[in-house]
Amino acid sequence: MSETTAERVPTREELIERAQGLIPLLRRNAEQTEKESRVPDESMTAMREAGLLRLSTPRKWGGWELPMRHQVEVLCELGRGCPSTGWIAANHAASVDLVMLMPEPGLQEIYGADPDAVMLSAASLDPKLRGDKVDGGVKVNGRFPYASGCEISDWAFLAWVPIYEDGKQTGVANLLAPPTDLRIERTWNVAGLLGTGTHAMVAEDVFVPDRFMQFAPLKEDGEPDSPVPATVLIKGNLHSLSSLVGAARGALDVVRDKLEEHKPLAFSTYSRAIDSLSVQQEFAEATHLIDTGMLHMLAVADGFDAVPEGEDATPEERARLRMHMVSSLERCREAMQRLLDLAGTSGFAQTHPVQRYWRDLEIGSRHTALNRPMIFEDYARSLLGTGAPVSLLF
Description:
Layout: H1 12-28, H2 30-36, H3 41-49, H4 68-81, H5 83-99, H6 104-113, E1 119-122, E2 130-134, E3 137-147, E4 155-165, E5 168-177, E6 183-185, E7 199-209, E8 213-217, H7 230-260, H8 277-305, H9 315-343, H10 353-364, H11 372-384
Parallel strand pairs: 1-4, 2-4
Antiparallel strand pairs: 2-3, 3-7, 4-5, 5-8, 6-7
Helix pairs in contact: 1-4, 4-5, 4-7, 4-8, 5-7, 7-8, 7-9, 7-10, 8-9, 9-10, 9-11
């Protein structure tokens, strides 16, 4: 039995050290990751062998079942190496929490064969999305427009699929299917996080057996109930956030390295930019902003760790924790602007890693679940008691 599959759970320090040890590899592969719009096999294998695909997996199924604080600390290091790779690892960790809502026979089939099975989660607003009840399961049709890692994952968690029986909707369900059963459309042509391969998946009469279905019937008012606790969803947002905080830390590493190489400060009396007091101050401000972003991120993790197992955080607590996620991203984005100033025009060269960290942070921080205006509105409503949240899922 290898070290990563042994019964002993690695310590927080061991897992962080393993993640830090992968940073040089992830950085070497970052350009390939972006060009191919997928995390290379070498990077995925390295994370698997280091046991970094088991952060959120319960001990029952061969994982480490870590506190959220420890999970995000590890994922942040992976994002520090390559934000796209960190995003995939984070999406996997979040998806595992969702997969654990599935029936026991399905989980046994998956994790009995491979405790490191890679998961993705995808939701859809496609009005044509539906699952029709058939003997032994459902047949699914519809389009899932954003599915990070769909070309490298073993299983896809298909969220909130309307279920029909005899032509009438009876509820909604979460389903599990191999992405190879769906048609993948390579649609992810964006400015950042290109390596996540967040392409579209199309289900065309895909059969999903009952053991891979979690069903929630319609409520008395005829409206569908959410088959996923809101706390689980927000924890998934925190997983994603950790890879973006890692992006800011990665850019900080690169700028520090350049300054320590004693690059000159062009058109100034400084032969070494690092000797400039203004450069020193700018670097210190960027460092402090990223540290502040880290503190906000860890505060959210601690908040989730304080929620009793099996319970949902209150709406007020969820609004507060989401607000901390916004603050974490804002501080990291402010820091990135200072780092871009220090890197100068050369930092925008396509071969310069700083511009990749910048683009990845900018794109990831616009994820709909990290939407700043909506989170602010929910937080204000929570504080003042002026109405229900406007966010439907959280």
